[in-house]
Queue: 2 jobs
Job 1
Amino acid sequence: MKTWLPPFRVELELHGKDFGDFIHGPGNSLLLSERMTEAYLKQEFTGLVGFEPVDVVRIRGKRKGSKQEALPRYHVATPCFSHAAVEVARSLLRYSEPVTCGECRSAGLQSVHGFALDAGTWQGEDVFRARGMPGKNLVSGRFATFVAHAEFTNIQLIPIEEYVRDPLRLGPPASGATGAS
């Protein structure tokens, strides 16, 4: 995926009556409301980079009578690629082929039924992407507590041991990570 470059212009689709504090943007980008951006920066969290302003050029699904003033300002930020890595032996992962690259750890990943990080690889980032878990943003416990206490909207955090992604409905592996099924 190519990096999203300025100018940062977006079309939003409104579901419900209020705009969320957190939106998945194009590629690896995240859109954070100004309220969430300011709180994140004040807490001196790590892992997100950028925080450039976004121009909302269109809103789809806007209901009649809703007020344009309710639209928060958004900023684009990108989670860092961390040195943190999935610990395959302690995770419930199903692969179509054996993992042969110790760096990416994700070739042929078919399903996830909970996972763990290799304790020696995570360097304490608060929002990050881990090797072996493509396309997923991970957060620290400190960040999860922050989100819950601030009551940010449109963000759902799932403990990694409870995270399930199984698009082919293969079910969890019999025990631990498996190779080709």
Job 2
Amino acid sequence: MMQTSKLLLILVFAAGVSNSCSQSASSPADPYLQKDWAKNALWDDGKAEVITYDAERVVYGKSRSFEYTYVLVKETFNKEYQVKTDAYNRNDLYEVMKINKFCRIPTMKYPYHYLTSVFLKRDNASLVHKLTNTSQEWCGNTAKSFVEDGNNYKYQYMSYWDGQGNGTDKLRKGPWFEDQLSYTLRTLNFEEGITFDILLYPMQISSRANLPEAEIATISITRTNAEDLSHIDPAFVSNPWKVNVSRAEGPDLSFWINGEYPNYLLRMEATDGRKLSMKSLIRDAYWAHE
């Protein structure tokens, strides 16, 4: 039964992608998202939203405490290279929202470093346009890249793991990535009791370069209690919501999101031991620093 449901959901996503007449493919989840969320003038002020979280993640069987910084900013890409443009007199420009996530996780012997970049077109919060992840630690470094290419993602990887090495592959476009949830869930049309299903690729923040497999995930929205967020600066907390993401095999996730725009991610917990709790927030042109 589960396999049949998964196949049907895959077909629905595929149909949404192939039937789209615009640059931004549609998704069955789109009715639950605010299409104009990223069009707000806030993102045109030339600054980035920089949020630092107190975080935890299990590494080598032990929960490790560290800081995780999330950077959200609007950028202008060019189609030729699908990166931030240096020239604005081109005719192939388009706007994206970039989410950079950086952390350094200490262990007993050496630290893990992760930098993850997720790009979504400014008018489409459901479909990842480009995703990259790099990891560095004493055992080696790994880099992964997923870039929109027709109805697929072009997947390129460089891994230090045996059986992986360097290679390319393709991945069906349409399912969400777990790594985009910290952004995409902020754009929800928040309403008590909303529940819908998506296909979800697992988190890519690791040194492994396995080809991801999508799994059915159920997203549900409920009001939350202020007590759940008592350790967070009350200046950032107003009419918060709780969004649960559950699935049969991957870890379940809970996100606490502020009810006022720009709907900050306040807290996250996962059943595999990952945790985030907002520590600080600034708007900053961080790239202009000397």
